[in-house]
Amino acid sequence: MNSKSIDMQGGSGLPIASGASVATDALVAPGDSAAPGGAVASEANGGETFDVAVIGAGPAGLTAGLYAARAGLRTAVFEQLSPGGQLAQTERIENYPGFSEGAGGFELAWSMKEQAERFGVQIINEGVSSLDLALPVKQLRTPYGSYSARSVIVATGARPRKLGVPGEAQLTGRGVSYCATCDGSFFRGKTVMVVGGGNTAAADAIYLSRLAERVILVHRRDKLRATPVYHDQLAKLENVSFMWSTEVRALHGEEGKLVSAQVEHLSDGALETVPVDGVFVAVGTQPNTEFLAGALPLDAGGYIAASETGETPIPGVFAAGDVRAKALRQVVTAVSDGAVCAEQAANHVAI
Ligand code: NAP
Q1: What is the rounded average pLDDT for all residues in the chain?
Q2: CB contact at 8 A, 62 and 76
């Protein structure tokens, strides 16, 4: 283990709350009208009434804002961190139509934000902490003020799920990360472990193979859940190896830095200590719905149960993107949800 200090910033060290995004530029203080990237911090800290209030500035929220503003509705998008959601943390996206060579995730997210603003969306850099949705004019509260809206689109996305093993919390940002593209460069020439078997784990392992000397993919089953295109790519990478049917049970550090992962072989319960410099956790996501607490019905996983057109049981309230219970969570399905919800919100406001 190289004892050189690894201080990760970005995705790993920050708690990710509603908006599912990690700040990539300075946070905006309330009342600061010179917000980065042209976003406006609310000057009045509330008191305004919008036709449509969108909560979350990922692909779903920005698209909802774009469609609503373009339909002539007074539209705000609330975002407590920086716009883009999980897309802004993705190095490259290859399955979003129109980009034959793929697109940079951050660049695509930023372009969505600028496009929405061009049509008059007001981006308010405040996290929504609670809501009253029952009345025809809905109330949204942030730490800095209250806002009113005739319709609300919830597009707060999801955040990485934790492993929940001893050592994980203490070593987050000290070898443990939830964002390969944010923190991968800290592990050039080192040994890293990726935990999970889905598309995120596969994409992270491929990305990290270009930086790390060795990548070990730990998965609790004997085959990946990831789409076949990733299997083929992984099979060709000589510095990627697999530990099948295994689960991480603990993470160990020395002098505040990760040094090893304890892995259980599920076939016989044997425990193995694997020396690693980094562990990238990619075991799925959980929705950013805690702030809804009782305001909207959620399913057993905490996702918002909405119709195909994004309607929730509360008139005028819609859900778009990864925060919704749905079969496929992709950028292309998130933007589609955003457009459909904006159309539904426009219909509701016209009543
Ligand atoms: P996911 O598809 O839910 O996969 C999560 C993986 O983590 C599964 O393999 C699961 O194992 C494993 N897992 C869950 N809990 C675990 C635990 N406590 N310990 C160990 N392993 C655990 O999540 P995802 O990969 O983050 O993908 C989320 C969504 O984003 C998906 O819809 C995915 O298609 C999409 N996505 C798409 C792309 C792309 O197309 N380029 C890239 C990234 C993500 P089991 O297999 O046993 O359930």
Answers
A1: 87
A2: no
CA of 223 to the centre of ligand 1 (A): 13
pLDDT tens-place string over residues 193-216: 999 999 999 999 999 999 999 999
Helix or strand run (H / E) with residue 170: helix 168-171
**Nearest partner of 43 among 114, 112, 122, 119, judged by Cα:** 122
The residue-averaged pLDDT of 246-254 equals 98
Q: Which residues line ligand 1 (CB under 6 A)?
A: 95, 163, 195-201, 203, 220-221, 225, 247, 282-285, 328-330
Number of H helices, E strands in the chain: 7, 19
Residues 339 and 27: their CA atoms lie apart, in Å, by: 28
Please give the distance of CA 212 from its chain centroid, rounded to a whole number: 24
- Transcribe 180-247 into DSSP letters: HHHHGGGGTTSEEEEE-SSHHHHHHHHHHHTTSSEEEEE-SSSS--S-HHHHHHHHT-TTEEEE-SEE
